[in-house]
Amino acid sequence: MSRIRARVGHCVALYRKPAYSPRQHLANDTAILDAVAARLARRGWRLTRWAEDDLVSAPPPPADLYLNMCQGARASERLLELERSGATLINSPLAVLRCHRHRLAALLAHGDVEFPRTVIVPTRPSAAQARAVAAFGAAGTAGAGTADRVVWVKRGDVHAERPSDVVRARPEELDVALAGFAARGIELAALQEHVPGPVIKFYGIADRSFFRYYDAAAGPAAPAPALDERSLRSLAFRAARRLGLLVFGGDAVLAAGGRPVLIDLNDWPSFAPFREAAAAAIARFADRYARAGVAA
């Protein structure tokens, strides 16, 4: 749906809470938002910076555009109120909430996005947990022998805050893995089927003006991996559209035959390996989006 703004000029950059940017990601997440904001300033935008923690106590000032890197539920709920009043946000807080794993798994379980079998379970012992653990123990990784069966256990709300938020376990180790999450106060976990193959990290913008990827094991400096880029693009943009994301990144596995399978999708990643090019593309997109709107 197109929309026309009579006045454009004030942009609020909403910075991610440090807890959601573990280790080096804090500096990288800040850097990409700084870089986009600087480019918008050169286009004539007036800028205000606002921290995610500040949203708990007060809404941000009125603006024509909000660059939203917040990930927490409390901040997103506050921003939903802002969006309902007609504010323009990149990304929408609703799309951000859809990236939380307990929602992501449900949204991608059916349809045209290839996504491994993923079940959300309580971390504390229950009948639902027992059924899920038993099911993964019986099925394991498709085509794998008993010794090769692997299940990924991931925190079921926001994305990983530390390495222990994503663990690899054999089916017989699931009880222990889930207990470890429960001991840390994490109430839900995602059990995800392991898909063998190299992991590809990708980054994109909804208008398709920017799309980059690299082999996670080789790193972004290595030669581009041999793959069907059209298939990877198609998967990435279908998934982003399903969630309503405008600026996004994620991970896919090249399964048997080179078929890409999505294993994770994130709202506004750091774009660290491609920061300069990404910042320029995001700023162009944001400027157009705020002025006239684009179809996502």
Give a description of the structure.
The protein has helices at residues 25-42, 73-84, 93-98, 101-108, 127-139, 174-183, 229-243, 275-291, and strands spanning 10-15, 46-51, 65-68, 89-90, 118-122, 151-155, 166-169, 188-193, 199-205, 211-215, 247-254, 260-267. The radius of gyration is 20 Å and the shape is globular. It has 296 residues and is an alpha/beta fold. The chain folds into three domains: 10-97 and 274-291, Rossmann fold (3-Layer(aba) Sandwich); 117-190, Dna Ligase, domain 1, CATH 3.30.1490; 196-270, D-amino Acid Aminotransferase, Chain A, domain 1. Strand 9 and strand 10 (211-215) form a beta hairpin.
Q: Please list the strands of the largest sheet in the order they lie side by side.
A: 2-1-3-4
Tally of structural domains: 3
Radius of gyration: 20 Å
Structural class: alpha/beta
**CATH hierarchy class name of the largest domain:** Alpha Beta
Low-confidence stretches: 1-6, 140-147
CATH architecture of the largest domain: 3-Layer(aba) Sandwich
Order of helices and strands: EHEEHEHHEHEEHEEEHEEH
What is the general shape? globular
Average pLDDT across residues?
89
Tell me what portion of residues adopts beta-strand conformation. 15-25%
Total helices: the number is: 8
Helix content: 25-40%
- Let me know the largest β-sheet: 4 strands, parallel
Furnish the topology, listing elements before pairings.
Blueprint: E1 10-15, H1 25-42, E2 46-51, E3 65-68, H2 73-84, E4 89-90, H3 93-98, H4 101-108, E5 118-122, H5 127-139, E6 151-155, E7 166-169, H6 174-183, E8 188-193, E9 199-205, E10 211-215, H7 229-243, E11 247-254, E12 260-267, H8 275-291
Parallel strand pairs: 1-2, 1-3, 3-4
Antiparallel strand pairs: 5-8, 6-7, 6-8, 9-10, 9-11, 11-12
Helix pairs in contact: 1-8
